[in-house]
Amino acid sequence: MSDIFKVKNILMAPLIRMVIKHPKIMESKLFLKAMSVFPEKVSTTYDKKIAISGIDYQEAFIDGLSYIRNEPDKVLDICTGTGFAALLVAKHFKDVVIEAVDLSPEMIKISSKKAEETGYSNMRFQIGNAMKLDYSDNEFDMVVTSNAPVYLEEAVRVIKAGGEILIAYSFGGKIFDKAKKDVIKLLRKNGLELEEFKSSDKGVFILGRKEK
C-alpha cells in the first residue's frame, strides 16, 4: 500500500468510527456540502487515479457479491459514481435489472457512457439523492453501494423483506473490524441482520438482510 493511502486510512479512522456511532452526522450541512462538491471535482479523473494507485478497489465488492444468497431481479446501486459496482452486478447476475443513482450529473454521464460501451441494456443511470430516493417502499431485491456514505434507513426502505444490502469500501478494513459491534448495532437499528462481514487490507464488505 502506498504512503498516501496509509495516511488516508489514518485520517479516515476517526471519521468512520464517528459516522458509524452517529450516522446523523451525514445529514449536517458541512458533510452534505462536501459530498456535493467532491464528486464533481474528481469525476473526470477518478478512474485514472484509482488505476495508477495500485489499489484494487473492486476486490472487497466482488468478494461480497460471492456471498449473495438471493438471485435478485431488480437491484439499486446507490451513489454509483463511475458505475463500477453496477457493472459488476450486471456481470454477476445475468438477467438482473439495475437502477443506479448519483447526485453528481458528471458521474452519471461517465457511468452511462461506460454501460453503453459495454453493451449492457439492463441498466439505467440517473441523478438521485441517497438521502431521499425516488423509489417506492420495498421496490428492490437488493441494494448495493461502494465507497460512499450510506443513509441506511432510506436504503432499507426500498428493499423488499428478505432482500439484501451490500456495502463495500476499498479502504479502512481494520477500522471497520474494530467497529464491528457498532456496525451490527447500526444494522439492527435499521431492521437488518448481518449475514457476512469481511475485512482485510483490501477493504471491507458488509452484507445485511432485511428482516421479514
Features:
212 residues; alpha/beta; Rossmann fold; 24% strand; globular; disordered N terminus
Any overview of this molecule?
Strands 3-2-1-4-5-7-6 form a seven-stranded mixed sheet, with helices on both faces. Residues 1-7 have low confidence and may be disordered. By secondary structure, it is an alpha/beta fold. The protein is globular, with a radius of gyration of 16 Å. It is built from nine helices and seven strands. 44% of the residues lie in helices and 24% in strands. The termini are far apart.
Uncertain ranges: 1-7
The biggest sheet, with number of strands, parallel, antiparallel or mixed sense and barrel status, is: 7 strands, mixed
Number of helices: 9
Gyration radius, in Å: 16 Å
Average pLDDT across residues? 84
Secondary-structure-derived class: alpha/beta
The span between the termini is 41 Å
Biggest sheet, strands in spatial order? 3-2-1-4-5-7-6
Give the count of structural domains.
1
Percentage beta strand = 15-25%
**Helix share, percent:** 40-55%
H-E order:
HHHHEHEHEEHEHHEE
Apparent shape: globular
What is the CATH topology descriptor?
Rossmann fold
Number of beta-strand segments: 7
CATH superfamily: Vaccinia Virus protein VP39
The CATH class is identified as: Alpha Beta
The second-level CATH architecture is: 3-Layer(aba) Sandwich
